[in-house]
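Bumping with the actual sequence this time:
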Amino acid sequence: MAESITVRDAQPADVEWMSDNTEGWKVTNKARDSGTSLEEAFHALVAERSDGTPAGWLHSIQRSGGFSEPGFVALYELHVSPDFRRQGIARALIDELFRRVPDQEIVLSAWDRDLYEAWLRLGFIYVADPSDNPEYRAYYGDMVRPPTTA
């Protein structure tokens, strides 16, 4: 039987754990010049296993569009602790973000090209760039989840 996963809003008490579970990101409670903060997050979510152990987190920011462009959600960080990978943690976090913002486009701010197929499985689509060269895994386009409601 698969372990149950709960996704909740990140709290100030989660910041230290989140910072210790990144690949170079510093997480803070208040906005600052670099890193990620709960204060500026559109959604900061933590996934916990049924025993309350935090297993992963994500951070997104609301971005406004240009003059006639709609706004979008930028997904800045998705991290799953190495001990909990391939257990549905990323899926639970992404599904919760999708549930919370069905009417907005979600764009990965940066993404690991080695995880191309994983992002597709998580519900994103790839919007190609003319410079792409899949033969060399050179993807310059964007990973996007279009709005699911009109």
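The tokens above came from a reply further down the thread. The chain is about 15% helix and 30% strand.
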